[in-house]
Design goal:
single chain, Rossmann fold, 6-stranded mixed β-sheet, globular
Length: about 210
């Protein structure tokens, strides 16, 4: 995988969306799913409603799962930004499940790996202490970062997930950045996935996420 295949957001579009689910006939309140991410989850450069989080909302509705999705992905966010925002989001939305899709911008900015790991640990702990199940979504860096750095960066997500017994998606862009012709799945900036890539991204997330849903 080379640099043009690295899809961690350098320029992110702010997005906080809430999709309401209908209350089931039995009167049970829909569970809340909170997504805390960067441009990969914020529909950067995409028509509204075509990002993987929006597609997730549609899949939940089609499967008649009583889940309300809150997309709290923000422009330029790092794990530090997510960590600072998370307590208020947990208090406001009281989610049953939290998806943490952050870390790519940490690598782009050359932030220390131990800082990224500490932030992911803190976010996972905070969400679990608030009663939520956590799904960590991993990212990878291109070879020019060095084999050792790339291995340690990718390993952060697995390490945090294992330490807290959280669910894990090892690589959000599997099948997108490492496909036969990945440029077809990128916008002209060669950084952000196209609308055609979003179903693949959702398919990477769905198996682990489905196990956490009511």
């Amino acid at each position: 995988m080379n640099r043009r295949h690295f899809i961690a957001a350098a320029v992110l579009a702010g997005c906080v969306g809430v999709s309401g689910a209908q209350t089931p006939a039995g009167g049970r309140k829909p569970a809340t799913l909170l997504v805390v991410g960067d441009s990969l989850s914020a529909e950067y450069g995409l028509p509204r409603g075509t990002g993987w989080v929006a597609l997730l909302e549609k899949r939940l509705a089609a499967d008649k799962l009583p889940v309300t999705v809150v997309n709290a992905s923000i422009s330029g966010d790092t794990t530090s930004g997510g960590r600072s925002r998370l307590p208020a989001l947990l208090a406001q939305h009281q989610p049953a499940v939290v998806i943490i899709e952050l870390g790519g911008n940490d690598a782009l900015r050359g932030l220390p790996l131990n800082m990224t790991k500490a932030n992911l640990n803190a976010m996972t702990e905070a969400a679990q202490q608030a009663g939520a199940r956590v799904l960590l979504v991993g990212m990878q860096v291109p070879p020019n970062y060095g084999a050792d750095y790339g291995r340690r960066f990718a390993g952060l997500f697995e390490s945090v997930a294992k330490a807290h017994k959280a669910a894990l998606v090892p690589f959000l862009l599997k099948g997108v950045s490492d496909g036969k012709d990945p440029l077809k799945l990128f916008q002209p900036d060669r950084i952000h996935p196209t609308a055609q890539a979003q179903p693949l991204m959702l398919d990477n997330v769905w198996p682990a996420l489905r196990k956490l849903l009511p």
